[in-house]
Every structure is written in structure tokens, then in C-alpha cells.
Amino acid sequence: MVAIRMGLDIDELLARAEAAHEKSRRAEAMRAKAAQEAQAQGQGAAGGACGGSMGGNNEPAPQRAPVSPADQSAARQKAAGNEASCRRCMEQPADPNAVRRAEPRRGLQTQEGKLQRGSRGPEVEDLQRRLNQHGARLAVDGKFGPKTERALKDFQRRQGLAADGVRGPQTAEKLRAEPQRRPEPTSGGTRPSGTTRPDDATGRPGQPPNRTATFDRVSKAGQRDQMVSGRITVNGNTYEFKSGGFGRGNLPKGEYTISNLRNRDTRGMVKDGVGFSADMTDKYDSRVGGTRTALRIHPDGGTPGTMGCMGIVGDAATQRRFREDLRQELQRNGGRFTLRVG
User: Fold this and answer.
1) 122-176: which CATH architecture?
2) Which of 119, 205, 273, 342 has the lowest CB atom count within 10 Å?
3) Average pLDDT for 44-50
């Protein structure tokens, strides 16, 4: 049955057995030829068996001699073993690790390929460096996490691209461009000429002192939804803000410690796609019968006014400028500074 499956007849099997005996007797003298026969066997011997065919290199098969029944049985077993070996070779599953070794690591796309949240590798490090050149403050660790995604979305918005948080070819091209100088504040902010490092709170003639906020106007005075409008100055720039207007009044006057600047996506803390907040320490307020907690500085998003926090007024460009000024002020003062509100 084995011989029929392989397309071989009994005579050929016997010839193979005799050839094996003959080659064993001539092993020492025929090593070179045996190697050539092995090479020829891999090139498609009869039946496709791994054992190969007789008479490689056109060598005539030796004269057949009578073969005992035991030798015939051995020949059949050998042929069956060859067929089984061939099947194992053909059906052997591929190395499961070979595909993994061939695939690039996640995140190691080409320069024009895509990088997104979850990507890792040197290209992510390059992305983080370029974002830092454009104003971000990222750790260059080669890990595309939520902070890198937020920084990339902010960059894409500034460049007029779809803010999808994915570095594709268009975003990569924008990132390779030279970073633009931060524009001077226009609406919503003023900057005194020559002010580069406002390290003190003395201010300049006509300019509010640095790290201060003033109440300029009051609406619905004395009512529970009283709201104030004013100006806040950080890093030498002055911006408009609103506080109150939703049943608990504006934040009280006094001194606040500002810290913990971070990006936010909470409704009411986002303006034109720009969201952030910084903590303001608690302040006792007799109007509400206790301590005003969870006070923040953030964009004045949605309907004008806040629940008592300080909401920065202005468009997306103004919000980005204020956030950058606040970041520089915090960085220069060790991560926190005192804001005098009055």
C-alpha cells in the first residue's frame, strides 16, 4: 500500500534496499559522491520522498541481487518512513515567532507613517521633541500616551489641521517647519514693551503689577448671581476674566496660591477647543457660609461667567497665550506662586 501511494513498484523498493547495502560497503570510497547524491535527492526524486532517488549524477544502478523477505519488509518500512517524513516537512507549521520577528515594533513607522496613542519607539521620541519645540512640555520617553496625544491635538488645532491626535503626513510636515515665535497679545492681553522676565510684582507705569488680579466691574451686585469682570496679569501679560454669575457669587478677594496647571476637557473649562485649569487655594467666604473650595483658573467656556472660579475671556489664541504665560510663571517660581486678588 505504501509503495502504491508513492508511485513506486516493489522492484524499485528492492533496488533501493540493495543500493543502500551497496553504498554502506563503499561508504569510505564514495563520500564525495554520496554528498552529491544527497543534493540531487532534494531536487525532486521519484515520489517526492526525502530519501531521494537511486543513481544520482547519472550513476547506473548496481546489479540487483536476490533480497530476503526481511530486507523487503525493511525496505517497505523505510519507504513508509520517508513518506511520513515528507508529510511532516510539508505540514510543519511555520515558526510562530518568525512573523513577530519580521514585523516592525508598534510605533516604528516611517517618517511619513502614522503615529497614534499606544505607539512606542524612536519615532515617538522624535515626535515629542518636535512638539516641545512648538511649545509643549513633554517627557521624551518614546511612549505615545494621553499627554502626547493632547499636545499633538493642540498643535494640530493651531495649524488648522483636523485635531485627531494622529501624526500623519500633513502633521509631520507641519512639525518639521521652524517653530513660530509666540505672537504678541492683541485682544484679551497686553504686554509692556521690553518685559521679558517679570520676576517681581512691582509692574511698570500704566501696567498692572505682575501676579495680580483686579475687579473692574460688578453686575447684579448683592444678588446671588453677582458676577465681576476684571483683569489678571501673569508673566507680564494682562487678560480679562469673569467670576461668578451662577448663584454663588464671584471668588472672594485675597491671596491665592496658584499651582497644578493641566489640560482639561471638562465642559465649561474649554473655549474653542482649548481646555486647561490651574488650582487656586481655598478661601473662606461669609456670603456662602463656609470655605469656597475647588477654585480654579480656566477658560470662560459656554455661557459667560463661572460658579465662582476665574474664567479667562477670549478666543482660542488668547487662551493658548494665557496658558503659556501661566506655565512660564509657574515654572519660574518653582511650580506655584501667589496671586493677589482685589
Assistant:
1) Orthogonal Bundle (1.10)
2) 205
3) 39
